[in-house]
Amino acid sequence: MRKALAIFLTLTLYCFSGQGAVLSAQDKSPGYDESIPDGDDDGEMPDADWGKYIPDMYTKGDQIFAISAATIFPVVFFNNGRVIKHNFDPPVGGVLSLAYHHFLGAHLFVGGGLGIKFNYTLGQNTVFIFNIGGRGGWQFVYRRFEFPIFAGIGMSPQRYLNAGYFGMFLEGGGAAYYRFNPNWSFGISADWNWYPQLPMKDGKRTLEKDIYANIVGVMLSARYHF
Question: In the chain, what are the domain boundaries?
Fold first, then answer.
């Protein structure tokens, strides 16, 4: 009797220990490391895990498409070496712009953009300024916050009533974005634009009519990452 009881207890313990091993094998594969978050088949994190996982956000070939809307402010205008008053009436106007950035590495990017600015004058008219140009920049990343800085140059057709001017512009600026999910980030940016207007008459420069305009913009932006 004692021998039969001992055999029964031995078989029972063997069965329970074996079943535990099977369940463990179903939950964890060989080499499983609990410190590494689970991902999908291509090594990327699923959207459901975005809130608890901070990846290396950028690699060579990553791209961004951005759309922005802003209020702009004319600040300092120069004519022939002296500061002059401009004819713009606050609130000045605004700008709508589109931009594309291509990353050459984790931080460095190049790209271009286009935009249209409109400024109201004291005479209740409107000046239109178009920006078409290229830019380059550097982006700092801290967790889900991104801080790009950039500079650019391009062409700037301008229109006021029946008068037109084709010039150039220089720009520089920076921004702060929050990476909402793998595809979208939202933020605010500020930029400075310099517009030299150098009219000519009979093929000669007219220095007394040269204008160097400095315009600052504050923008709300949405960026799509792909």
Answer: 63-225
